[in-house]
Model the fold of this input.
Amino acid sequence: MADLFQILSREYIRYAFIVGITMSVCGALLGVSLVLKKHSMIGDGLSHVGFGAVAVAACFGWAPLAFAIPMVMVSSFLILWLANKNKVFGDSAIAIFSTLALAIGYAAIELGDGVNFNVGNYLYGSLLGVSLTEVIISIVVMIIVVSLYILLYNRIFSVTFDETFSKSTGTKTTLINIIISILTSLTVVIGMKVMGALLITSLIIFPTLSARQIFKTYKGVTIFALISSVISFTTGLLLTCMIPNLPIGSSIVFVSFIVCMICLLIGKIKK
Done:
């Protein structure tokens, strides 16, 4: 216990802990709808867009968050538009934007000679470099996500399982999808600083997959996904602090995978 308090006494650990917990909550809540609608890989695509945007911002000396957030939002709208208009299949639209963003980001890093940009930190996550501004933004985003999720719970539930029926009953399904896309974009960009662009999707996918092995109701899946997401992040953070040179993103993914396998085993036993 004394070691735990000693770890949390470091400012950068506290900042990373707050950002990670808030984004774990957001990722779990949004992930339930995205995974059940088979749109979970949109988080992966947006994280790649976020990495490319941050690299370009670093190349030109711009504020990373101020540039990355609108770029990722625009990309999420375009992915939705392409999928809804049947111009391109959803997974193909995600692949187009993710590969293009990675190419742009890598080109910006190589062309920006002398740019102070740590690729590893943004790809795999880092405890260092989380600012107080990012902590405040993450708390505000979490409050917005939780509030909208509670307020729009019935509509999100309806759109998740039967979008056609929801539209026929008067629900503005396009607006609901846009809200989910905006909130997912914010979660991905802010969480990318701690988790890394390549691993942030785990906060969206693993909690819901774990919950679905045990619970069969939407409410049960949502609550358990929220709990498992927070536990996985906290455990991963502590492992990173105790094991030298272990990236926090990798640590959280390992823990999330173990939790998912345990839930899968429990689900098999229940059956």
